[in-house]
Amino acid sequence: MDYFLSEDQLMIRDLCRQIAEERIKPVRAELDEKEQFPRELMKALAQADLFGLIIPEQYGGLGGGCLENCIAVEELSRACVGVSTTFAASFLGAYPILLFGNEAQKSKYLPLIASGEQLAAFALTESASGSDAGSIQTQARREGDEYVINGSKQWITNGGEAGIYSVIAITDRSKGARGASAFIVEEGDPGFSVGKKEIKLGIRASATAELIFNECRIPADRLLAREGMGFVVAMRTFDKSRPGVGAQAVGVAQGALDEAASFARTRKQFDKPIITFQAVAHMLADMATKIEAARALVYSVARYVDSGAKDISKAGAMAKLFPTDIAMEVTTNAVQVLGGHGYMRDYPVEKMMRDAKILQIYEGTNQIQRNVIGQELNKEYGRGK
Fold first, then answer.
1. Residue 328's domain spans which residues?
2. Most buried by CB count within 10 Å: which residue of 105, 115, 187, 251?
3. Do residues 328 and 345 share a domain?
4. pLDDT tens digit string along 77-136?
């Protein structure tokens, strides 16, 4: 289908597709098998200026928006979600600075992210507070012209690889979620260390690690916005980033369909390609239809976000919820179409199925997305839409 992309957007799509085909596909199985961080691929993406996609031109970026990000992430995910997660997580870490940073903070950090010189990461989740983001335990106290952070964060993408971390910590526990604040922590800050690197079901090329703050001292001017804004920073960040997760889902689902349809045309049973059997053809038809519906939703929401719309929580949640559920369904069905071959590591669909699962979990589980949508519907119908 034609989504009426601009010339610049088509260039981004074609560039990312070329990198995916020529650089990512040949090494994705090895990266997955060895759980190896894709440093060389990140360098290639940096050389292509792709880390500057959503960064304004005044800070060394390309000045693109949510749609440009979704286009790029979709194409990278078509080849490997582990690689696209590493790439996209840097934007997740950049959004708090982009949305809430002052001029000095933006001028210092955004050019580093835009050039790919440093990766960024977003640190909210803790062992006892995943979906319940308001229950985080990591604390920050003000001491003179510094903040001192104590606690730990869990399952942080780009943990140990990033140079810039956007961290949410409690500054006033008596205020509950309204007592959280957002900070910028740099690699090498005293008292900041990286703990356990996780061994995962999927997205094995990406780094997922524990972050430890033990009397971690940072300058007070690393506070984002003001004290008490941490939960708002986190939610606004997710509103912006969730369509990108939907784009990852569209990409991996499309990659799985490509593999399944190609296999079905060449695999013969009863002297016929299996794509000629209605049972298989109908599976592929449903996969293709649902992928296109998911893509249309993601692109539509991305354009809505880029329009400057303020109330984007429901749309953002929908753009994550539907495509990621579809991705899990499509990748599972791709394995089924390939049969025994699909279950083997000689073919990429088993990896795609493993990778797809995280998309229903991170950046807010799909159950949380349904909560968000339901709450927004309650508000809308309560005021008569």
1. 231-382
2. 251
3. yes
4. 999 999 999 999 999 999 999 999 999 999 999 999 999 999 999 999 999 887 787 789
* CATH number assigned to the domain comprising residue 361: 1.20.140.10
Cα–Cα–Cα angle for 307, 180, 214, rounded to 5 degrees: 125
Active-site pick, 68, 259, 350, 363: 363
Give the angle 113-229-382 at the CA atoms, nearest 5°.
115
Same domain, 270 and 158: no
314 falls within a domain = yes
Tokens of residue 330, six digits: 């499509």
The pLDDT tens digits for 123-138 are 999 998 877 877 899 9
Residues 359 and 250 grouped into a single domain: yes
**Amino acid occupying residue 310:** K
Q: What is the helix (H) or strand (E) element at residue 106, kind and residue range? A: helix 103-115
The count of domains in the chain is 3
Rounded Cα distance between 54 and 72, Å, is 11
Note whether 366 and 341 are same-domain residues. yes
The pLDDT tens digits of the residues spanning 151-199 come to: 999 999 999 999 999 999 999 999 988 999 999 999 999 999 999 999 9
Helix pair 81-100, 349-359: axis angle to 10 deg: 20
Backbone phi and psi for residue 208, each to the nearest 5 degrees, phi listed first:
-125, 120
What mean pLDDT is predicted for residues 17-37? 98
Task: Spell 274-306 as b/e; 16+ CB within 10 A means b.
Answer: bbeeeebeebbeebbebbeebbebbbbbbbbbb
pLDDT at 225 over 80: yes
Of 93, 118, 143, the last residue of a domain is 118
Angstrom distance (rounded) from CA 6 to CA 16: 15
Asked whether residue 2 is domain-assigned, the answer is: no
pTM for the structure as a whole: 0.97
| Listed residues 228, 258, 293: the one ending a domain | 228
User: Catalytic residue at 210?
Assistant: no
Give the pLDDT confidence of 265-301 residue by residue, as tens digits.
999 999 999 999 999 999 999 999 999 999 999 999 9
Residues 108 and 244 reside in one and the same domain: no
